[in-house]
Input
Amino acid sequence: MNEEADTGGLFAPERVAVIGATEREGSIGAAIIQNLADFTGDVVPVNPSRDTVFGQPCYPDVASVPDPVDLAVVVVPPPIAVDAVREAGEAGVKNVVVITAGFSETGSEGAQREQELRAVAAEYDLNLVGPNSLGVLSTPEGLNATFGPSNALPGSLSFMSQSGAFITAVLDWANDQGIGFKDVVSLGNKAVLDESDFLTHWQDDPATNVVLGYLEGVADGRTFIDTAREVTQETPVVVVKSGRTEAGADAASSHTGTIAGSEAAYEAAFEQAGVVRAENVQELFDYARALDGLPMPDSDEVGIVTNAGGPGVMATDAVGDSQLSMASFTDDTLSALEETMPEEANIYNPVDVIGDADIERFETALDTVLADDDVGCAIVISAPTAIVDYEELAAVIADRQAEHGKPVVACLMGGERAEAAADVLGEAGIPNYFDPARAVSSLDALAVQQDVEARSYEAPAEFDVDRERARAILTDAADRGARRLGVEAMGLLDAYGLPTPDSALVEDPDAAESAAADIDGDVVMKIVSPDILHKSDIGGVAVGVAQEDVADTYETLMTRARNYQPDASILGVQVQEMVDTEAGTETILGMNRDPQFGPLLLFGLGGIFVEVLEDTSVRIAPVSGREAGEMVDELDSAPLLRGARGRPSADEAAVEEAIQRLSQLVTDFDAILELDVNPLLATADGVQALDVRLTIDPDQL
Output
């Protein structure tokens, strides 16, 4: 990826050179030349084997072109593609699209070729798209530097895709739907420019209202989050991310040469970055049309006007599954509806104007609902009747929406009879859907974007920690060849200010007795071995050990461990202060290092329930105080922390601080690959980490 890449020349060049241009039927070089027929600038064929291409002078190389070239499109075979890019760089070209496949997506030889391509791009400071790309397209310039079969209609959506074939299908479908685009780019293998570069470009593009993306993975997770977080404050970004399942992730990796990150990490990253996630292509464009044409709602309260009870109930159910809620009408609204609607009508939300409603009744009901200050947005649903002309109803909906300035979506159900009405609505920026659930989800996307734009991002806190002590603990473990650590690493948490019980790691019965004497009351004793993960399952944990029993208990624990796994590395026994777990709620605080996004924090209900209930929330570290609070709020079991059913309320501020402190720890040390604090006991007096285990990569220290 280029830092602060100036990608303007990719979409608005004055002169385009097609390296590998030809007239051969069925060739990519011919298809691109033909697709550039409407380009407002100059098209220059480059091919040393031809004098002309489709009647235009053809040059042997880019250096021979008499005027400066802004964009070079490379379609030569893989063995000479890198040389072609180098020649373009030497000739002063700054923007290059490599259509040619045969790079990292094909194996080790292709991966080596892609490294060479990246090196050439860096040497000449090139904005390079691809390789293995369908090309780029920009409607204002008439630029179609792709080999796709369809051009795009003009519009205000800009679209990036990691799949070229997906672009061809989308453009063909969008043309039938009347959906237009500003820019389209096929990312290909993302050897240089990636999704973050194009997000930055479109953020500064006043002609792009919404950014759409199909992604199989991201090149740099942290950069993506930081970039998208800034972009989405002003410009909505809607993404379909494939590879949700393990099988899908494997397929994505083999298709693009990208190692897909975990689904949980992508979900967290999109949420933190303010990206609206679509589950499929239909949602992608449903959301796009709503975000492109409608104003933002003042609230999440929805008013529904319908002439059909069943679809109204369907819409109400869909609202219940969304972030939205059904508006409660004011007394003035209910009185106005009671005066103007028939006695058989339902004046409560959803408003049922009943099947014999004419245009005037629809208009009165919609006008009344939109005038209610408690209504933030509205849905108009109509089943076809002989009384209602859909085009007239569409005009009324558009007029009322413009008058009140609130987002309205339509659900004029039917086939051919709804097509002309959909065109009328489309001219006003109002989408029409057959399915009421799609109408609701589109308004939900508006509400999500509204929340994103209202966010105030804050920097993660920087706590005063003992980083050198933490490094020493990790280095000592690495020096003895350990990759997995257990309670012997409790000092790591202590160094970062996470409270832990008094404890000591001992290697003989006498030391155990001495350690226990320094602790008030009975103690807990645990076998310490990186090779024995579930210590309680083998009887490797003793709770409530009295002082006089400490030595014998030490011998018992060691014997059990050796009998269970004779070849296990046993570091000794931990003698720990007894903690009353009934005095609080057992939670888990953990981290898994994702290949794309880095440390993925997890917080949830802990103890023995974590794998059974799976009530957890995740974020990419580092996290702010707001994000730590959201991790707590998202749990279904959050009421347990807040004193449900007579339980003592936990110190929630201490929980949030613990999340932030662990976030700082795993951000500071890339060597920590996995870490679980389980349980993290949350009580009214604060938190305590009772157990820990982690995996490290010594090479990262």
The chain is about 40% helix and 20% strand. Residues 247-261 have pLDDT under 50 and may be disordered. The longest strand covers residues 672-683. The domain at 502-577 is CATH 3.30.1490.20 (Dna Ligase; domain 1).
